[in-house]
Amino acid sequence: MAAPDRSVENGAEDDPRARWNARHRERVRDATDPAEPATFLTERADLLPEGGRALDVAGGTGRNALWLAGRGLDVTLVDVSDTACAEATARAVATGISLDVVRADLTVDPVPAGPWDVIVVHHFLDRDLWRRLPSHLAAGGLLFACQATVTNLERHGRPGRRWLLDDGEVATLAADLRAADPDLEVLEMTEGWTAEGRHEARLVLRRRG
């Protein structure tokens, strides 16, 4: 079963909170909600600091947040879904891991107060939010961003076109971010098919200092 996609769908006809509550209830009930951290993060573990503060944006039921916390980071998970937040809290309690869980919609709500040493935005697309997140990084802080592109539709029907990056768009976003903030440097920018069979753009930024 593919991991749940966290792409934002915030049109006027859509209620993200209700939609994601329903989706997470189904996945938790059917035991299809992923527990293992994303390989996007685990394969880049050597970049992570040994301590500090981490923000997991649209972190769902905690697969990445719990892994980061287990590595010694002080992690805050933010998600729009009450169901996801409750499940993330339950998993943290069950494993004895400290995790701060906040229910919020960061497409409209403010980003939790930083600065953050690590920010993760995995399978969640809101371009305005992507542009705002680097300003919340601490000196030396890292932003990990990963999202499927339109080529992903060759193998998968979801997420739909509206919620995908254009092929090559990540390079434009990275250039815009660096133009707005020269202290940002690109550590990695890749695009292609992953071992999990998704066509994704992956970006790792660091704030100098």
What does this structure look like?
By secondary structure, the chain is of the alpha/beta class. The chain is 28% helix and 25% strand. It is built from six helices and seven strands. It has helices spanning 16-29, 39-42, 63-70, 82-95, 127-132, 169-180; strands at residues 53-57, 74-79, 100-103, 116-122, 137-148, 184-193, 199-207. Strands 3-2-1-4-5-7-6 form a seven-stranded mixed β-sheet, with helices on both faces. α4 links the parallel β2 and β3. The chain is globular. It starts with 15 loop residues before the first helix and ends with a strand. The relative contact order is 0.16.
Largest sheet: 7 strands, mixed
Distance between the termini: 41 Å
What does the average pLDDT come to? Answer: 89
Task: Output the number of helix runs.
Answer: 6
Lateral arrangement of strands in the main beta sheet:
3-2-1-4-5-7-6
Strand content: 25-35%
Shape: globular
Low-confidence sequence ranges:
1-13
> How much helical structure, as a percent, in the residues?
25-40%
Number of strands: 7
Summarize the structure.
By secondary structure, the chain is an alpha/beta fold. Helices cover 28% and strands 25% of the residues. It has helices at residues 16-29, 39-42, 63-70, 82-95, 127-132, 169-180; strands at 53-57, 74-79, 100-103, 116-122, 137-148, 184-193, 199-207.
